[in-house]
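Here is the promised in-class demo. Please do not try to memorize the tokens; focus on the logic of going from shape to residues.
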């Protein structure tokens, strides 16, 4: 099946919707092939009980742990806000400062047999 046919099938037969980006990402990862086998995809996405799929209100039920994956695989084309960009730059500078400083530690002996790691 083609991607658009699979999307249409899931819209008609389940309560959740797949998107093209999610299916393309699954193809890139090697989970499914470009010519999508619907029965194999259903084994991966739909909830099963014994030998069949779970049907609720006349529609197949998608596995609960798959729903976040499907919803996260949406391409975002929103522009990055200036504040977010500034925060990213600040974080990069902070990381660079930490990487520049050599880290030296020594072990000090405390009372008795206790040892302590001390940063120099």
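The designed amino acids, position by position:
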């Amino acid at each position: 099946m083609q991607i658009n046919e699979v999307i249409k099938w899931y819209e008609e037969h389940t309560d959740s919707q797949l998107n093209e980006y999610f299916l393309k990402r699954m193809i890139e990862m090697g989970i499914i092939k470009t010519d999508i086998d619907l029965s194999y995809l259903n084994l991966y996405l739909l909830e099963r009980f014994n030998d069949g799929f779970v049907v609720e209100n006349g529609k197949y039920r998608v596995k609960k742990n798959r729903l976040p994956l499907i919803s996260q695989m949406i391409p975002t084309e929103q522009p990055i806000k200036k504040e977010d960009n500034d925060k990213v730059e600040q974080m990069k500078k902070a990381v660079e400062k930490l990487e520049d400083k050599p880290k030296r530690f020594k072990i000090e002996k405390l009372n008795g047999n206790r040892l302590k790691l001390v940063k120099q």
